[in-house]
Amino acid sequence: MRHLSVLTLIFLFCPLALFAQDNYLVDWDEVGEESINHLIKLVRINTSNPPGNETEVTHYLKNVLAAEGIPSNLYALDPDRANLVTRYKGNGSKRPILVMGHTDVVGVQAEKWLEEPFGGLRKDGWIYGRGSLDDKDNVTAGLMLMLLLNRYEVELDRDIIFLAEAGEEGTPEVGINYMIEHHWEKIDAEFCLAEGGGNIL
């Protein structure tokens, strides 16, 4: 699968690219390589649902964020199936935007794969592996968005919240349902950018 969703990159990085064009020198080739490296590492973490094991992904994300001084928190109904939330602070004049991606993947029939499903193989401009398109590409894009906003200290009118969600593949009780019922204040936002769309709540 292609290494990052084109639409995801357009929606998440285009405003920053326009901002950076006037204010910073951003090496977008370097950003692309960094993104690909994170995606490969995430694909190599087997989060097949069931059982999930999403906490391993959230620990990876938390460590990457912490290395750049970005705080994040884990919220879990099941300790092996954590959700991660981090927030980039704007001036608060507008309500937040929630950017989310899910860290679990559907199971695999390994014998039907030509490549190792959790190998994260990079070949001919493609990344092969379960989750490379659904949905660890979006998780990677959300991670990179938070890193870049923080690195360049971008001034925004609203907070940006990143949620790495567990349990999207059929077990929402440990993921989005749990977050809504028990930690709504952490993800409450005016808009949500995710892999799906078309529904107004």
UniProtKB/TrEMBL annotation:
Keywords: Hydrolase, Zinc. SUPFAM superfamilies: Zn-dependent exopeptidases (SSF53187). InterPro entries: ArgE/DapE_CS, Peptidase_M20, Peptidase_M20A. Pfam families: Peptidase_M20. GO terms for molecular function: hydrolase activity. PROSITE patterns: ARGE_DAPE_CPG2_1. This is Peptidase M20 dimerisation domain-containing protein. It comes from marine metagenome. The lineage of its organism: unclassified sequences, metagenomes, ecological metagenomes.
